[in-house]
Amino acid sequence: MRIPLGCFLAAILIGFLGSRFFKDTSPVDDSVSPERRERKANRDRRTLQQQMEDSVAQARLAGKFDPFSGEWADWTEEELKSALEEGLKDPAVVLDGKEQRLVRMLFRAWCDKNLENAIAWWETTPSEFMQVRLSGVIGAAWPEDRGMEGLEFACAHSEQFFGYGSVASGQIMQKGLQQAVAGGVNEVASALKMLRESGLDSRYTMPVKFPDGFDFVALADTDEGRRVIESESCFFGGEWMKQDREAAFQSLVLDRSSFMKVFQLFNDRPLQNYGDTTTEEVERAGWVAQKLSKNSILSTPGVASNGALSMKGRPSMLAAYTEGFEDTVVRTIVAEDILRNSSSSGEMVISYLNQLKDPEWRISLLENTDSIVLTMSEKQLRENLSNWGASTEKIETIIKRYALTLRP
Amino acid sequence: MTPWRKFWMLSVISLLGLGLGWALGSNSDHDERGEGKIVTSARSPTRTSTRIHSNSASSPHRYAELLRRYRDRGNVSPELARYIAKCSGDQLEALIINPGVDEGLSFAGYPLAAQVRETVAAEMFRRRGLACLDWITDSISDAVAITLAREVAKTNPDFAIQKLKGMGRYVGIVPNMIQSAVINRAAMRSAPELIELLKDNKFSVQAVTNFAPDFNFTEYINDMNGAGKVTNSAWKFLAAKDPDQTRSLLIEGLGGSSGNGFSAAVEGMAIINGETEAAKWYVSMLDEIPETTRKESLRMLALSDASPRLEAVFNGLQSEQDRAEFGANLLNNYRTKTEWLLDESVEVRGKIIEHWMKNTMARTKGPLNAKELINTMDKLNFPEESREKLLSLLPPTSN
Question: Region Disordered: what ranges (chain A) (predicted)?
């Protein structure tokens, strides 16, 4: 009896170890033919892409990204509270932005379980710094259908939603304003008044969507609407532009006597969103530049370059905007400013230049723009210059110009 | 039983065992949360290495375990972490170049793509070791190269620095992220190592966010003597960790205990204990430090960008002289809101303005501009009827 049992146990052990060994080495299997490996890699890439997309979709759905999201259901409120208190005592966690995320995840988990209790604890946290850091989580967890209530809450705690170098009110303001939009012009105006009186600034809201046919003219005509336009922080400028460009441009730009900020015309999505640019956005950028060009007061390099800042990281919009200016001097100054602002990323510079229609102008800009620090590979720059039709002599001149920062 | 039958029986038993063992091994890193047992696997940094059933652990223990797993796993979901651990080399390269996710999607400002990239970098380093940097070529973007080099720098700082410099990338400059990884690694080891690193390299200033549990702050601050972002980080961390030791060292005048040191320490104390407690803690030291240090610390603290801190310190100061001094310094802080000063009595605001006049004249070594004085009185909403007295303090040459 002993022998069969011994064999059985030994076999289990061998099987276990064998599976572990082959599992760790299987991703890089050299014995398989290159074609098969390639086919498998293509299949796996698709699966990987699908996994990534699913993961992002889940994150977007939940309004958060949390590696422990599947585990919080096992935690009691008391455990979450206790863990949060441990975290807030730990300097390594509190002082480091990346580690702080863990505390925010714990707090988010509690907010999802019981928002009222989580907030009651948050209000008693001694560290004002951490209160501000955690208030953004309250905004993210706040139910959409109680948006106005959330706005009132944020206004009552305005100091905890703004400070220590961070603005944490974006999401809670957005939820309140979004609900106000459904109630019409007067409700939006009331919400804006409440925000102003509490010291919160509507310019920091996450983008708010407006239904088709919303009466922006009436909103702009309210006291609060006028205030946000006059303070050049019109959070509804981008949405208005999407629905009625002429009226929005008239109200936000032409009716204003002082220097205006073009970014208001594109604030229908977050500035740092580097996702795909829509055709409408590219076309809007060109349209705005053409309109500015037609106004002698506004067709200045200052106004024009300011507008380009709101399109940072979106080369096709930037190119359409640049080429929309009729005055060649203004156009060149805008292009040079864009190059200077993008030059930390060689890829961005090349991507922007490739979107400009005239290859000769691309070469000329690289040849003449001052103060660009072009960090990219020399080979890549050579290839692009050659594709644009630059002569050998010109290529060498430009390469020499950026020799200090180009990679060999 | 015949030997032949015995052989067959043993073969069948062995095959069954082999199959069972294989199945157990294949499934051993699946999530077994909730099954009440600890599973340990130290093979991959991206794998969940230890899991504990929720109900079997006390909360502080659960927190410690959670923190350890968070630090280990690279910030991505367990599914994605497991997937990355199973990717082929080609797939890892494809993934690190293009994480394929929306850069705009983030959790409180930390882009998801960066999390994915970091996890992939950790996996590439785990498999290829230092050779993972050989894969960096011209066509690889800076963001990818830096992420990979930072992963190497956490354990092999010199190699990462030399490799990047050797490639002519960044024109011989060590990128900030690499510097930060290298400095933080030294801080997690020991004070002498951090001192040596900073003395040997011309790093641009970088903050440190964590120090070894037995880090000798006294040795470090004493040796580095003076200001600097890393020294400020040390004061900040120490005050957050051990306010009593920090208090003794500041009073003792360790490393010259500059105004910067006080300011950083108050910040660290406040981040854990709140502004009011931090202000009380700071004020309790004022009678025990030299006059120059006292003035310098009041000046540096007034430059803070945390409005609640400024208010708490102002309210916490006991002597009229200190309040006037601090209030005068606040008038030079143009970034931070100090409207609460307007609630102070006319007498207090008058004293602040007087102090500000004295400081300004001492600094510029000349007469004060009357217009500047009026602007300051306006800023503090100083009543018209009380202005004459302050204006009369101006030297005759002022206009």
Answer: 26-49
